[in-house]
Input
Amino acid sequence: MKLVFKILFTVFIALSVASCIDELGVDTQEGRRILVVEGAITTLPGPHRILLSKSDKYGDVFDGFIRKETKATVWIRNDEGDQVFLTEGEQGTYYTPASFSAAAGKKYTLHIILANGERYISLPEEVVPSPAIDSLSFLFKELPTLDQFNPNTGIEVYVRWNDPKDTDNFYLWEAEGVYVVNTKPHLFEGRDANYVPVPMPKDCCDRCYVYDFSLNTVLRVFKDNLTDGNNNAQLAAFIPDDGKRFMEKYLVVVRQYSLNKTAYQFYDLLKNQLSIQGNIFDPPPATIRGNMINLDNPDAEVIGYFRASDVQIDTLYITRAEVEAPKPILQINDDCRVLENSTTTKPPFWK
Amino acid sequence: MKILNSVFCIALTVAMSFLSCGKEEIVTDVAVFTEEVVYASGESVIMTGRMLAAGQIAVEDHGFQIDTDENFSAPLVVSLGEKEIPGRFVGETNMLDIRVRYFCRSYIVIDGEPRYGNVLEFFTLSPKAVGFTPKEGNPGIRLTAEGRNLTNDTHIIWNGKVVTPDKISAETFVEFTVPPIENLAAVYFKLVSQGDTLTFDKPFEYIIGTWNLEGPLNDPDKNTRHIHFEDGDEFVYGLGLSRGIMTSLVQVLNKNTLQRTTIVFPGTPTEGAFFNKTYFGGGSANKVLSPVAQLTLSKEFWKYENQGFVQLADMPVGLYNAVCLAAGNEVFVYGGELANRNRNPFIYVYNISTDSWSVHSATSQTFSNLYPAFNSGNFNYFVTPDRKTHRHDFVNDVWQTVADFPVIPKEDGISIELDGKIYVGMQATDRSLYVYLPDSETWRTKRTQPGGLVSYNTIGAWTNNGLLYVVRTESSNFINRFYWSFDPDGI
Output
């Protein structure tokens, strides 16, 4: 009898433990299709661009496609009720009229009605005035590398400005550049039928201007809580020396965007998440909430941020002679126009 | 006793095991905040609120209260119902009055007790009118008026009568059907939004003008590539090709009696000559059969006068299909082709007083008398196949592109001035007519010439007693010539 009780007791304990296991409902087969909003308006003349797409499951390209949201009704409205409707250019890309620019001090909301009727609205984004850029300067920088024969060098571009006193100011910097490349098309070698190099000199072209859009690999944001009202200097861009960029002269264009507090928090969080490298010091993964709301389902997730910024622009020429230890010039035996974003037409602003 | 103890133990174990499997349903306390007024227009507002809690909640109702009174004595309630999970919520309403200060706060109801969030203040905006499109049209077309902060009760006052919108969208666009035309050709309509009357600075213009088929015109010629102009009471046309053959005949039609007189041109008969206001010249001395073959061009320049012709100073060069525009004491000749078929880059000007030619200036534009051209004051205008209207200030030699021509222009047709407005159209077999208003530098559409299956080509046009007369001939073999009158203001 005692044995029977013991057996029954053990069975009940086992059943009770088993009954407490909840199934973890992780279903990775279906990807959620979340609206992704990318875009900003600035105080510069338009057209300004808003990109709309729906996310899909991460994985093989055949698992799902990131679909552009076409035929949406998109408009931007300020706090006085003036609004501008955007027109769709490429699929899922919506443009303001060229005449449209944001005004500092005003608040703007982005309104979206998707083709399926879903309605979205952004939280009001205030355009905070940005102080002017005082000056740009640069420093030669050598980064640590394991390759002692190929140093990792470049130019750090610093922006200096007078931060307005007694106001919380937030900044974002972006940069792009133009540089001259000299190549040797007359030394071009092709391949014969046996894939043996044979001289095939080209008549054109040995001098090009290359537009460099690859500088914004890092989000450069800043808040003035510790330097309020000071004359500040911050790193605005890093231009890697790849043997081409500083052949002769490099023009860097720095854009200083004002951010409001929520925009700064978004970009700062995004910057943190982008810095995850897979080590123990990484910040924990997090969902970053933007400023878009699904009006019909406020709990629905929307990815992205609609930003409205004031902009200040400055430019700086950096010659090869000014680079402390420039890399050897890369010899390119080809038409310079084969380089990405290159043109033989001298930019109208080039000095 | 032992058995009882054992039974008790088993019962207790079973009870505990069932309890341990139950889901933990801890209802936590909830805080509610009014986050932001995301959108405020004339009558609409969108607000966001947030409920903060450590876990699941049991809210019987949540939403927003809106009132003009800060104490919310008689609030408008935007109820969003029950909610079991905390987070953001959005409330909308479009029942507000324009230009009013409101207060809003979020609320939740738990166990029958309401709790309120912080109070936010906002102002509703004034409706306003921005514009409308199209600017002209026929009764029955869909017209879209654009405004801002338009309310749901927006309606249209059209010529004193109320028109109900077909659709109001985004508080911005009011679509409605243009009512039948009554006594006014141009209507300054208004929008009325919550009692605010909103006006536009320009009227909607009905497409008007009345056509009347006056009758046939007996004429044996079948002109193409010809010249035509009016001179006082006479409409003069001729030269060019008749039945495909070069002709030296010129017809003079009395505008009042429609009596036609045929006169013979004493100079070199040409086709593709330039002509305007009794002046004509240039052109090819032979029928042009190829668009590339070398031309034999005439440099002769003539003036029609009293059913005769006066030969004036020859042009410096021969030109084919050039544009001629007479203004004041000068006759300008633009564009056209040289004998080698290259474009003529120069503007030649003939001085009537001195009977002499000179080069006025050069232009990069290519002009041909196949397309509309006309003069108004110190400006010469040219419509090019890309729909552009180019304006040449010939006094200061300044070029400017003004309004786009409403359609892609076809060849030939009329360009004729009546009461300071320029009527252009009836090109090729087209029956449409447009008017250029130099004061506003705009094009407007006039009522299309009625027609059936028969297509007509234009011979020319004249004006008389405020009416426009157009002579057209059946396209098929250029037979059966008729003339129509057109009253530009006819409703």
Remarks:
- The interface with chain A takes residues 6, 9-10, 13-14, 16-18, 20-21, 36, 38-39, 41-42, 46, 48, 85, 87-90, 92, 125-126, 128, 148-149, 170, 172 of chain B (CB under 8 Å).
